[in-house]
Queue: 2 jobs
Job 1
Amino acid sequence: MHKESAIREPLILGHKTFNDVTQDVCKPIEDKAPRTWYILFGIALIIGIYGIGCILYLLGTGVGVWGLNKTIGWAWDITNFVWWVGIGHAGTLISAVLLLFRQKWRMAINRSAEAMTIFAVFMAGLFPLIHMGRLWVGYWVMPIPNQFGSLWVNFNSPLLWDVFAISTYLSVSLVFWYIGLIPDFATIRDRSKKPISKKMYSILSFGWSGRAKHWNRFELISLVLAGLATPLVFSVHSIVSFDFATSVIPGWHTTIFPPYFVAGAVFSGFAMVQTLMLIMRKAMKLEAYIHTKHVEYMNIVIMVTGSIVGTAYITELFVSWYSGVEYEAYAFINRATGPYWWAYWSMMTCNVISPQLMWFRRLRRSLLFTFIISIVVNIGMWFERYVIIVTSLHRDYLPSSWSMHYPSHIDIGVYIGTIGLFFVFFLLFARYFPVLPIAEIKSILKSSGESYKNGTNIKIKSKSELKKAKKSNSK
Amino acid sequence: MADKLIYAMYDDDDVLKESAKHLVSKGVKVHEVFSPFPIHGIDPIIGVEHTRLGIFAFIYGLIGLTLATVGMRYFMVVDWPMNIGGKPNFSYLENMLAFIPISFEFTVLCAAHGMAITYFIANRTLPGMKAQNPDVRTTDDRFVIELRASQNSNYSAKELEAFIKETSFVEIEQKEI
């Protein structure tokens, strides 16, 4: 028996030339923004401003405006923080880990996924800052000599590790993203006719010229930054999970947390990428670059990480029983059957059952189905954090202090507001930045473009080659 | 110093690579290649050495690790030992597990940013600098070889042009600086 491996599907559809790639990516930037962009931007801005209003009210009044009480001292604020950090995991994972594995399909999505990462981490960072109540002393988390006899920050505390992890992650992701953007800014700079945009993009492109030596350095720095960012991605959410795992609260105090959180983060991050990408490819006419195959690859990642998360949930349940610790066991019985059962079961349905549907090839290649699942997954992942945080806290060791958590309208306003702000940033990005890595896509055009793959290389033939062909014919 | 620059423009990366090979085989020194994306395999042909940025990144990483270790030892052990749950606060080694996350993060922070800054300085690409590519199309779909008369003193400019004309070029241009 003889089995040949199938030729992989092309990553770039249609007979694209180098110039076509430039045109396709630059067109939405150079054209006037469509009306839908203004409408969406307006909506996002209004929601964002409402959120900022809620934050200002919170800062003026105090953290008491949240629906917290003595028993539940942590609720939506940290839930939202972990949710946003989780979403912020896909971008760097796509560009760094997939770069190390030389997965070419990453190039269709890495730029916007990284942008999403950065904006999501902005939103995440907001929550610990406003949680301080006094935002203006936020710099106290840094080890700075001070007037209290140089009382340093506590380097044993996972909360401080978080400060370092999140700020390192944000700044390294930003640099990684920007270094990749420079050659593409140069492309836009060289195409633009209007003086203001020319000036802006020439500042942004740092005078990039595309010399061989620069490309050599560019490739190495991308590789090394990817190598550095890969363990960073895993460390960040591990450290976020230490915030809980190093405590002694039943339901939090589990060693499974770091891998479980990292898988969950990748899971929700990819879901968010799907949500954004499916809209973006349509709105910006990028169907040739982000097509069903890319969606399928991402769905497979969602399926795998979703299965890891599902396994973690079941392991947690098993260990809570097997450990024989009655407090631990109660925490989990209470999650599934207590007053917050609806949160637990929505989490279970959204995160464990829905990704399993991706085993069906038909479903994971369906764009509409993917879009719905991607939103379902993100709802599920929000509930996961809510379940872990609120249901573990609301019934503590002392039944007389058992309580329930009801979010105040400020809680809701701040959360919704960050979603608005996130979309404000993302829409600005989609309007003014190259959403696909132009240079990188050109470099895979010959190995993964449709015209080269299928041997129907008609249009892409360079002029010089045609000239040569003509010459030899006339001879 | 007056110098003559010859630019040969191509419309395909593989054609440029072949042409560069052709020129080099004639003993012509190719001064520079401008391209819209990295051309794999061009560096050995035109004699561009592999970058040493990686070594720099490693050194920056080591500096970060050292700073983090020295800093945390000073803050937590020497200057103001804190009693946290009775954990040992008098020795760095016994308490080191708690310091690993920040040591790692700070190593990555220093390596990544140090490398990025070195990259920008080595490239001479900083905010607001003027673009140096000879033609605006080199960031779109054109590939340019730059020859310098001063580096090819064995040949006249005419001879150099003749060599280029043997390749499948698209445009050719001369410039005096």
Job 2
Amino acid sequence: MDIINARKSLGSKIFDFINITVMTIFSVIMLYPLVYVLSISISNSEAVTLGKVFLWPVGFDLTAYKIALVNPDIWNAYKNTLIYVVLGTTITIMLNTMAAYPLSVKQFYGRKYITVYFTVTMFFSGGLIPTYLLISRLGMIDTIWVMVIPTSVTAWNIIVFRTNFQGIPESLIEAAKMEGANSFRIYLQIVIPLSKPIIATISLFTVVGIWNNFFQALIYLNDNRMIPLQNYLRTLIISANFESQSIEENLEAITLMGSGKSIVGLMESIKMAAILVSLGPILLVYPFVQKYFVKGVLVGAIKG
Amino acid sequence: MEKVLSGRKRNILTHLRKDYDLYLMVLPAIVVVFIFHYIPIYGIIIAFQDYNPFDGYAGSEFVGLENFIDFFKDPFSFRVIRNTFYLGALMIFFRFWPPILLALLINELANLKFKRTVQSISYLPHFISTVIIVGMLFRFVSVDGGLVNSLLSSLGIQKINFTVSPEWFRPLYIISMIWQNVGWGSILYLAAMAGISTELYEAAYCEGANRFQRVRFITIPGITPTVIILLILNMRNIVNIGLEKVLLMYNPAIYETADVISTYVYRKGILGSDQSYASAIGLFNSVMALIVVLAVNKMAQKFSETSLW
């Protein structure tokens, strides 16, 4: 490529210039909504109501954060999300790797049938209503378990892990067997340590999946103290009639004080502050873990 | 015959005894899948019943295809089927070409650092939740100082209440989808481009091919297999509209364009109490989806050796 890049024609240089410009604009468009959200959250509420905020904040006002962060509901929702993420990811990784290891052992009798048994779920499912009826009959509504168990085992994860485990040199496993290790020890002490990258990748996808999911909680959790962050955000930023009482009370207090803030604008700032508070962890770790995600997509593609 | 059978039985027992620990390891996953995937498949029978919770699956009256017939008589059935296919087709189209275009442009960037930065930024929206995407979208188009309406009014155009206008649902849905997915969708194309041998480019260069010719005759043919496979696989989405985003975006004022099969099922079966009817609609949708998946898989097989099976 070096020879090609060294001598470029004029047309090629013009193209480079246009392409870099277009890609810069594209990057700005990708980031713009996030900057806009940040600006709204710290702008003067008057300016927000009048639509004066386009890119940079107008004025500087952290009231929205004060209100959003003193609200106990958001912290409770945060706590719930963390519990579901930690528990759900642990269960997902445990169950799927444990199922995948035997399926990667060539001499394991019945591995074909068991693989088909899992794969069937990729093509057939009972659908929303029968699943809902089953879960309510099991008494799992309003329990932690409904958030972490029903979706934990997927054919996709098992297949990805199995394919990966098949790449482990058989000589290692044979040697351990000679030493008298049983299958569970081989799984725990050889297979898992040698598969850290793929486990990290699938864990990350699972974490993001649970962190971002709101539908599971929408249909299976009625108890407001149990709802995760996404469902809290949904009530706050999307449903027109926000039910979050403590925020309303705070707003009233501020109006009563006659601070002259615009309620509509302040409410908008609070919504945007809440978005940023919930996006925070993902934005913070994203630059460091991004390459694992990309790797995960490629692993999946080779399989498919 | 009996000898063979008992021999086989003994065989299975030997395997069970020898590899009991392997069986124990796979067992929990088998149980979870049985309970949460296979039992609901059995539960589909309520689509053929007049289900009521007190009598359960066993006691509810069997009504045959009545629920399905009701669905086709339902004044809304045409609307939800039409909306599902319409939105599905739009999604396939706009998931198809924007990532390819982006990948081609990114691939032409010579500065590696800039290239990586653009890639990283473009993947980011993929990790933002649907709730937040819709929340930001609503903020952008809000009538109270939202960006779009502020621009419109500064141009002297009347404000539009986007979230309650049926004609704006699809554009908003698709535009936000492109924003969220274009970067992530380009990963596989970029990987395919990285796999093209640099010797090909150098040879073409020596033959006097200019840059556009190199893209046209080397890069594009190089990614064509990936393009075809991904296009075929994406076709599955035509009847598989994600329920979440529509559910967050719609309201009764825009059901005309926004209500799809899955949201209709949700309203009938979860918010309402017509579980049998909702299951029948859901089953109708799954059967269509399955037909599409099987057809698509056949096509994929024809185009390449790899297959989903």
